[in-house]
Structures
1.
Amino acid sequence: MIHKLSVGLFLGVLWLLLSGKTSPLLLILGLLSALLALYLSLRMEVIDKEGYPIHLTVSTFRFIPWLIWKIILANLEVCYQILNPKARINPVYARIKCSQKSDLGKVVFANCITLTPGTISMSIDADSIAVHALSKAGIDELEQGEMDKRVTKMVGEN
Amino acid sequence: MYLAVVIAILITMLLALIRAIKGPTLYDRILAANIIGTKTVLIIATMGFLFGRPDFLDIALVYALINFIGVVAVLKYFEYGGFHFSGKPNAKKPEGKD
Amino acid sequence: MELLFTLLEWLCLLLGSIFLIIGGIGIHRFPDLFTRFHAASITDTLGAGFILLGLMIAAGMTLVTVKLLMILIFIFITSPSSTHALAKAAIHGGLKPKLDDQKDNQEKPS
């Protein structure tokens, strides 16, 4: 119940941030639109732990700085490959084990893999993700499993 | 100086456009279209600052939504030959398109 | 203090522009579709990230910053999703990634 009410609160705050208006009429209209969106999403039954994972907020904020650091490092690596005229490009294809059980965890892990340049996820199975990498180094780093461990910790499944 | 950023984004869009014209496969062209869409979001946001009208950001936000939906819709169309495929892995692929 | 923020803003915008153009060159330099994804993801992550960060510093603590942050979060969530959809559609459509031939023992995509 509290979980569902928090969706309404979130929608109201989102409306306020996007509009920035505070006259009474517009506030009432905004409240009505937030309630309408809440009613529609309740009817569609999309509000559950997977569709609205608010219980992960704190762990997400702990996860994001590390991810951004990884993204910057991977970006510099790929930029070097692009700008160096002598660089030999030898792509690698491999399967990476993923330890997440839920669909949400797998999606977050696959998205993190794709978000770091140099590795993209091609397809997801029950316990592994097919990864295409620009160089062998990217696969080696994923096979060490630090990102896997951090994502599992973030979605709270260890 | 915002103008320099706009010009840099335009150069990137031009490079992507050349790839879209040259692109050997269909998917290269969709990739180029995706890049151009993301850069359009950036160019709208920067133009808002260039003209001193931050209202443009609402348009950029909506364009980001439309771009994503558009790319996924085009891909679904070319992958399954229509929009009637539900996406379930064991459902049968429609005939007449590969 | 004012000068520092201005400098930081232009530095972010400059870095963003450089990353965008490097990504643009990358989609011409790489040999096949699956390597071009990596170049495209540079423009989507650091290129877009630095430019929006620069605009955020220019806007200061206003609602404009919140909107820019929303655009940034949205790009960071949707860009890997559409890349993954594109890669999956390309494999489904019969394209094979060009791999390094010297390693025979590695798995070929089905």
2.
Amino acid sequence: MAVLMEKKFPVEAGAYESAGEASTTIKRTLKQLGVSADVLRHVSVACYEVELNLVIHSDGGVLTLQVEPDKVTLISKDVGPGIPDIDKAMTEGYSTANEEARTLGFGAGMGLPNMKRNATEFDIQSEVGVGTTITMSFALKG
Amino acid sequence: MTIQDVKDILEASVLEGGDRMNEEVETACGSDLMSDVLAFVKEKAVLITGLINPHVVRTSEMLDITCIVFSRGKLPSQEILEEAEESGITVLATNMTTYTACGELYMHGLPGSKRRAPAEGA
């Protein structure tokens, strides 16, 4: 289906101060487009989690927002380091977050499972030394 | 329960959003772990926390949390209050500990946030 809107947000590794800015912009953009509060909350939570993951765990990446008539898609693509064991990473409570992330109230090992719970469709592909791509779509109810 | 009720029960001061005291709140959550807040909280909620940084406001905005209560007499910076103003979130401060503040609100009939059901199709 035709993509009505596409926006890209570069996310810098280790930029804890500004983490969440892309998600805030995405939430406000979708709200202006008239996305319902319920769907908006699912997108926002998953978006914030994935943006934080880029800041905390990746070597930097890009968050892409795509809006189609029947769904919203978020794609997080980073340049490494990749996840050695995806099953382990998807387990609630398992975390490799550093002390700085934990001081801010994150790194409880809830991020990836929470993204999966909020998205209508969730896909994660990762290769060590190459990078991780997470694709999440959210159905827009009519 | 309204935000005004929350303020009265917790003997709190209003740091931001004094014009929204009549807004209704339906549930509450007490946590310093934003990861857990992101996984559990529903809309129209109050967040009671002892954690003070801008991510408390950003997390709240993502979840449509209407009111943040900073516990144990801790006060947020002007920068945090400005973010809250921009997000339309009311900010209160109480001298009670997080445990006591949660207990008081619970006793007055404000239930805890339950984990939401999986997203449709997940």
